[in-house]
Amino acid sequence: MNNVVNKMELNNIPTDLRAKRCQHVSLEVSDIEKSLTFYRNFLGMKISERHKAGEHKNIPFEMVFLRLNNRHHDLVLTHDPMRKYIRKSQTESAAGIHHFAFECPNRDSFAAYLSRARQMKLEIVRGPVIHSSFHEDGDGTWGENESFYVLDPDHHRIEIFCDMARITDEGNYVNAYGVNVPNTFADEI
Ligand SMILES: [Fe+2]
């Protein structure tokens, strides 16, 4: 019972005090140069700062902070020169990041990234797909966003998407065109 009460209290952090969004991800990569080329060429990211392993006494690994726009970092690449990076097998690996996603500001941007991925001959491992059981071309999955997925040089799975549904204060889903998505309701409001 106490656990339930604690959980409810945690869920009731007022909206003006709640963390705004899940913002950056820090990825450990086996080859910083390869990954830099990928993230700069494909996503147009820029280097904010790059630091060598041991440059700071608490940071024994290399770090590169990358940004999309004007925030200091949206993605951080790390690389430990003392570590042996063994490529994950398809069937056996430690639990880790399944995928992370970059939001496009509009459909033109989504289309531009899709053609860029094709131009760069990246393997598109899924999509483009509309995650919807409401949209006539939807695949029956969740979020109402249109997405495609590629792999980075270490096989981290990256989603590029646009048009994710918003959830109203009442818990209803509204798609990117302002239309209520029928038969959907957030599990928690
Ligand atoms: Fe996703």
Question: Notable features of this structure?
Answer:
four-stranded mixed beta sheet; alpha+beta; binds fe (ii) ion; 3 helices; globular; 2,3-Dihydroxybiphenyl 1,2-Dioxygenase, domain 1; 189 residues; 2 domains
CATH class of the largest domain: Alpha Beta
Question: Which ions, cofactors or small ligands are bound in this entry?
Answer: fe (ii) ion
- Quote the average pLDDT: 92
Q: What class would the helix/strand composition place it in?
A: alpha+beta
Give me the CATH fold name of the largest domain: 2,3-Dihydroxybiphenyl 1,2-Dioxygenase, domain 1
Q: Can you count the helices?
A: 3
pLDDT below 50 for ≥5 consecutive residues: which ranges? none
The termini sit apart by 20 Å
Strand order, sheet with most strands: 1-4-3-2
Describe the main β-sheet briefly: 4 strands, mixed
Verbal overview:
The chain is built from three helices and eleven strands; from the N terminus they run H-E-H-E-E-E-E-H-E-E-E-E-E-E. By secondary structure, the protein is of the alpha+beta class. It folds into two domains: 60 residues, 2,3-Dihydroxybiphenyl 1,2-Dioxygenase, domain 1 (Roll); 86 residues, Roll (2,3-Dihydroxybiphenyl 1,2-Dioxygenase, domain 1), CATH 3.10.180.10. A four-stranded mixed sheet has the order 1-4-3-2, covered by helices on one side. The protein has a four-stranded mixed sheet with strand order 5-8-7-6, covered by helices on one side. A hairpin with a 5-residue loop joins strand 10 and strand 11. The mean pLDDT is 92. Bound molecules: fe (ii) ion (FE2). The site of fe (ii) ion has 3 residues, from strand 5.
